[in-house]
Amino acid sequence: MIKPHGGKLINRIADDESRNKLKEKAQNLKKIALNERETSDLEMIATGALSPLEGFMTSKDYKSVLEERHLSTGPVWTIPVVLSEKEGDDVEIGSEIALCQNGNILAVMEVEDKFTFDKEKEAQAVLRTTDKAHPGVQYLDSISNTYIGGKITLIEKPHYDDFNEFRLDPADTRKLFEEKGWKTITAFQTRNPIHRAHEYLQKCALEIVDALLIHPLMGATKGDDIPGDVRWQCYTTLLENYYPKDRVAISIFPAAMRYAGPSEAIFHAIARKNYGCTHFIVGRDHAGVGNYYGTYDAQLIFNEFDPKEIEITPLFFEHAFYCKVCGNMASTKTCPHSKEHHVFLSGTKVREMLRAGQKPPAEFTRPEVAEVLIRSMKNS
Q: What are the pLDDT digits (tens) for 204-260?
């Protein structure tokens, strides 16, 4: 099985013996509230999804990621994983703090570093823009200009009201793949319902690997993204009717979206390696938003690294569509016909049709998925 990033799957979850002692100790520590992104990052650090990280980044790693796109210890890394100091926290280096979600203590952190940072510099290095309309820039503007770094130990996982049986940690997915006998697994990241073009990419990938892991991101997203419960109904409906059950798995990817396009594509690929996946599908405008990134920037960035450094194999796909002349799904790599023969609908047009109770053409989305989305639109 593919090795985790950095060579070792990190586990920063307190064992049964130490959990109660640590929980009791944490009651007397300074309590720091985590925002939604930080809560996701904490869980992913603890479970090894962000191996080799063992905590929130110190200034040494933070600077190395922004300037070198590598951790200070060497492995490729393109996204800062950081904890912001909140107003009134007054955290001291050398102390221990309790990290909380809605007042519940989740973890203890050893404060190794506390440093100020330049928001514009981070935005330009990671997001490739300082435009205030970019959701990642808006996030940076919402936090202080001080980060706190250090190793964490998880006492309790974040609380979720839904999908708990599908929240598999990297150790769980690795065990699942081994039990199934799958040697090669491709991951598919999504924060949207799966339409026919996505299905086409996934099934092309399934022709060359043993299995597919559909790994929808369920952490914080933009307010106008389709809610997670609706997306989940779309995924399960599609799997029930159109996918081979013995070659597909689905589980939650708890990360928060950064909308960092190319930088986030590398981040997503590395995380999926930690989950045990050997391949990773990168389509058009992966993790993009608006017009901030070129259509295939998220693919081109992989050329800037030695493949041995990343190890997981990216699978690049062109924009896919249904061609009326070919009579099947295709891309510009395989279809010789011009655009007027292709079934393509903009996101705006699809939303208009769904709100009006109209099903988009079956060549664009499966009718069962359209029904789920129409019901959601009517109830919203």
A: 999 999 999 999 988 766 666 678 888 888 889 999 999 999 999 999 999 999 999
Which residues are designated catalytic?
191-192
Q: Assess contact for 148 and 111: CB atoms under 8 A.
A: yes
d(CA 362, CA 375): 17
What is the separation of C-alpha 299 from the centre of its chain, rounded to a whole number of angstroms? 16
Quick one: pLDDT at residue 348?
Answer: 66
Q: Which residues contact 212 (CB under 8 A, 6 or more apart)?
A: 185, 186, 187, 188, 202, 205, 206, 243, 247, 248, 249
Q: How far apart are CA 7 and CA 2, in angstroms?
A: 9
pLDDT-derived band at 87, boundaries 50, 70, 90: confident
pLDDT one-digit tens code per residue, 8-42: 999 999 998 899 999 999 999 999 999 999 999 99
| pLDDT of res. 224 | 66
6: left (phi over 0), alpha (psi -120 to 50) or beta: left
Radius of gyration of the chain (CA): 21
DSSP string, 241-304: HHS-GGGEEE--B-PPP---THHHHHHHHHHHHHTT-SEEEE-TTTT--TTSS-TTHHHHGGGG
**What pLDDT score does 218 carry?**
80
**172 near 215, Cβ under 8 Å?**
no
Give the Cα separation of 264 and 270 in Å (integer).
Answer: 10
Output phi, psi for 212, to 5 deg: -120, 130
Contacts of 183 (CB under 8 A, 6+ apart): 1, 210, 278
